[in-house]
Fold this protein.
Amino acid sequence: LGTVRYYPGLFGVVCSSLQVRSLFLASVWSTKAHSMFRRKLAALEYHQPNSFDIADEAQFRNMVVWLEDQKVRHYKIEDRANLRNIQGGDWPIAFKQYLEELACPVNHGDKSAVMDWLLGYAVRLEYGDNVEKYRQVKAADVQKEPTPAPSSDVLANIDPTSADFRAGVASLAQLLQIPQHDDQLMLLKAIRKLIQEKLSKEVIAESQNKKTEGVPILLEKLDAGFDTGDPAVNEAAKILRLLHIHELRDLQTKINEAIVSVQAITANPRTDQALGKVGR
């Protein structure tokens, strides 16, 4: 069989060469994976496609939640609580169940492969929802994409997948009695619009300066319809009755406005004299 000879120096050089080659291949794969993620994230109109780092566990989990909320929508909104709880200890279990329900074919322990599959799956769903839109796109139209100008909207620089951001927006919406929405940026815009229209300094000052003129009424001449035996209670009952009547009048006014608005949409017959009939 011959004699096996050991050369320590040569062995060390070979091992070092293999290690360098492994590091080089890992670097090449990381660069390709980052470029691959960036292209798919840009296609999905993700707000920061160049900054996604799959090695960051928090970013990885936030990306999974963003894909489910915005693109995949496998679960109903009320069923996404376990997946959204990215800080919880049971998140890996919820994520594994999520992948099984989506029938993810890749190794669930390979984060890069899983993320690549999820992004590809989201792209397929996005294309399926907008087939006619993407059929009109030509290669020449996307070869030279103009550099987007800096957005003047302050909301464009906010990360909607941040756990603190989502919790803050949800709390603020609940405080202002605004219905929850799965798109946190859309919900934040609704909050901003409500504050601008109802809670700004100008609106508050205008409401304070606005005076409603009315006809003075003497409580002595007003009949409450009953007598409690106490003059003070009788006057209080008369005041409550007047306030109730005022609220009923406001309600009737709003009802009339709603009826007029509906009639403006539905009660608009078009006459076709050639057919000799009235209607749409």
The CA atoms of residues 215 and 242 lie 12 Å apart. The first strand starts at residue 271 and ends at 272. Confidence is low (pLDDT under 50) at residues 9-18, 20-32.
